UniProtKB/TrEMBL annotation:
Broad class of where this protein is predominantly found: membrane
Endoplasmic reticulum in keyword set: no
This protein's UniProt keywords: Cell membrane, Membrane, Transmembrane, Transmembrane helix, Transport
GO function term, MF aspect, one: transmembrane transporter activity
Name of this protein: MFS transporter
Source organism per UniProt: Paenibacillus validus
Membrane topology term: Multi-pass membrane protein
Length: 395
């Protein structure tokens, strides 16, 4: 419940920040650059974060990261309220938020299993996705209305205050922490190398992470493309931007609800492959439309496949990974899922600046589709070349 309250505030800040930057600069490229800066720490530090997270109680780490996020949101609200906000200030705050989230995201992923155990893990991840996407429906709608009536500063202020709920919720949770035993004379680089070697030797983990890399880079650039699409293609304002983001949330919420009912069967690798392909196809369709209604419907369906892909990928990695490697596997998941966002946001912003939002949607969708089909073909070919004896040994 605390997370649900906080995430509504987070989505209010997300759309408020995007619209603020677009208003300050008028440049899709500079908007994409903010996304690049915000997710750059994931790219640079995720591997180190996994080693650190393994060695400390995860609840304690989350209390620190959530408190930092609250402070940064309140700082941004103060800058906007006092009319002293500048693009450079937003960039610095985005960088600090990205640094905080580099430790927060993999910690939350690894903390799930400490709370519920392996048997209920996929159901917990699906319910967490429902919470996230319920907030994605409510947050943009409330945030867009608030921006239109009162300005974006109130989005940032309410987001800052909303962290009180999640911090209180964390304080009430009692979990059995898993802290990996410290090994003597093993440096950070060797621990990172050990985790990478483990992933490379496991075909399930390797294929899943490769798919997450492609989809995370090319398919999840909505924060950059939807505001530009709303303003330049549909010729509409804040309310339509919030409505389109809410459509994405409605579809995602439906996908998360479906996954919660199917969770007892465990993660399905086929759904990872199918949803990645269909997600790419619907990005192409969004690029072809100039109708708000069709765009909203396509975004809703995109949201469904978004959650099918993310939930099954996340569950597969957590359940399949050994306990002593789980935090490192999830830190690499954070690296390829969120750490690839700087590249994706930069590419999407550049493409939107040069070819327009419609062209950027089509370019991202087309490349994503091609690469996903290539990965599927590569692993099927590799599987068909394994001899019965090798298959038995791998099993």
């Amino acid at each position: 419940m605390g997370q649900c309250v906080s995430l509504v505030g987070t989505w209010m800040q997300n759309i408020g920040q995007a619209w603020l930057v677009l208003t300050l600069t008028g440049s899709p490229f500079l908007l994409g650059l903010i996304g690049t800066i915000q997710f750059l720490p994931f790219t640079c530090l995720s591997l180190f974060a996994g080693v650190v997270i393994d060695k400390f109680p995860k609840k304690r780490i989350l209390l620190v990261t959530q408190s930092m996020s609250m402070l940064l949101a309140l700082t941004l609200s103060a800058l906007v309220f006092t009319d002293t906000v500048r693009y450079g200030y937003v960039m610095v705050l985005a960088l600090l938020l990205g640094l905080t989230n580099t430790f927060d995201m993999p910690t939350r992923q690894a903390f799930n299993i400490e709370i519920v155990g392996k048997d209920d893990l996929m159901n917990a991840i699906a319910l967490n996705s429902m919470t996230f996407n319920l907030a994605r429906i409510l947050g943009p709608a409330i945030g867009a209305t608030m921006m239109a009536l009162l300005g974006p500063a109130w989005c940032f202020l309410l987001n800052g205050l909303s962290f009180i709920a999640v911090i209180y919720g964390l304080l009430q949770i009692e979990a059995v922490p898993y802290v990996r035993e410290k090994k003597q004379n093993i440096g950070v680089w060797n621990e990172i190398k050990d985790g990478l070697v483990y992933i490379r030797g496991d075909q399930v983990l390797l294929q899943t992470l490769m798919m997450v890399t492609v989809v995370g880079t090319l398919a999840y650039n909505f924060a950059v493309l939807i505001p530009v699409f709303t303003k330049d293609v549909l010729m509409m304002k804040e309310q339509m931007y919030g409505l389109l983001m809410s459509c994405l949330g409605v579809g995602s919420f439906g996908g998360a609800l479906a996954m919660s009912f199917m969770s007892k069967k465990g993660p399905r690798r086929k759904l990872i492959l199918i949803s990645s392909v269909l997600l790419s196809v619907f990005l192409l369709l969004i690029g072809l439309t100039h109708s708000p209604l069709i765009a909203g419907l396509c975004l809703a369906v995109t949201g469904v496949f978004n959650i099918l892909f993310a939930t099954n990928s996340n569950s597969t990695l957590q359940i399949h990974a050994k306990d002593e490697y789980r935090a490192r596997v999830m830190s690499i998941y954070s690296l390829v899922f969120a750490g690839s966002t700087p590249i994706g946001n930069f590419f999407a912003g550049y493409a939107a600046d040069r070819y327009g939002a419609s062209g950027a949607f089509m370019l991202c969708g087309g490349i994503c589709l091609t690469l996903c089909l290539g990965i599927i073909w590569m692993f099927r070919r590799k599987a068909s070349s394994v001899t019965p004896g090798e298959a038995l040994q791998q099993k």
